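Note to self: the last two entries modelled the partners one at a time, which told us nothing about the interface. This time every component goes in together.
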Amino acid sequence: MFGFKACAVLKTIMKGLVFLFTINILVMSIQTTGSAQQSPAELLNKIDRLSKEIEAQVIEWRRDFHQHPELSNQEYRTAGIVADHLRGLGMIVQTGIAKTGVTGILKGPEDGPVIALRADMDALPITEETGLPFASTVTATVNGETVGVMHACGHDVHTSSLMGVATVLSSVRDQLPGTVLFIFQPAEEGAFEYDIWGARQMVAEGVLEDPRPDAIFGMHVWPITTGTIGYTTGAIMASVDNFSIKVFGKGGHAAAPWQTTDPVIVAAQIVTGLQTLVSRNAELTKGAAVVSVGSICGGTRHNIIPDEVELLGTIRTHNEETRQLIHERLNELVTNTADAYGASAEVTIDRLYPAVINNANLVNDMLPVIMHSTGRENVKEMDPLMIAEDFAYYANEIPGMFYTLGIIPPDHTGPVEPIHSPRFDVDESAIKISVRTMSYLAVEALFRFSK
Ligand code: NI
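The predicted structure of the combined assembly is written out below.
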């Protein structure tokens, strides 16, 4: 019995050993195939440590930027600090791109892929109400009025984080299998006195040309719980185009409307008709779309039918086809509606930003390293947003990934202030996650794109 049992046990052990051996071979083969494409664990550990070491410094930079915000295309002080920092790290630095933009090139020991990382530097014309010890008291003149200036969109966090990433990646430069291009961009919020600005102008001035990046990453702080990273595998932000419609009728006494061509009635029909562009024309299964009228202006008093009414509105879409379709249908609908009532109309559409479309393959490749940074359960696929981001101009040129970074403390109670609120605030414990995640992404992408 014993002999039999011993034999059976031995067989079981042998089977187990064969099984383990097979598994081991399999694991080794996965590791071998993977090792050419994935960041070495030891390098990620080092980056994690360096991100913690730089945390206090990044928070200090962030508070300094927060206290000294600058409006779009006026980011001279911010750009100066960024450029000095990048030069101090021994990078090849270029300044004055798209007015105040800065780039830094960090080269590893050998040629290889190029990965771009982007931060935006501008603040908003908003008077800060956070009561923070480093709250902004800066003012500026906008359209002849004195207004406060505030980093109400978190670009202070974006810029300081990317400076931290620059420090971290410089410290591991010898282990980088390629080049990292740091892009600090002005005027993401728009500089409407210019024809083009921000990312579009940076691209026009060749920021993606020499070296040509293989991929680009960008991030926006977002009012979700600290530690959470949000992503999509397609559209993440919408295209934005503004329209103005002028309806020309024939004014007269409101008591005798038959003597007039009433542009108020025509404008009302147009507003109603515009609702059908999304509900009846846009192929909504391919992406969301919005057409909103934000302003109607015409007339002076209750008993006068005016000559003219002006409508202002915005168009948001998640793909170029829908965007184009809505532009065409809006023109047709407005001019034909006006015509039907004996009036005429003039349509102007200002094409602003395209939709931000994340490259699905890039995102899927990067998800494991993001999960490594912040925990699998904290990486969340999000619904695409209808706001816009000029990161779109980079992602139109090369594979791009734009993601959101949670900045609301887990124990937060009460209302959450959205971006662009005068009370918008950021949980600074998100900053080391911000630095680590973007550093991981750069390194992982360098390894993935390495031949
Ligand atoms: Ni922003």
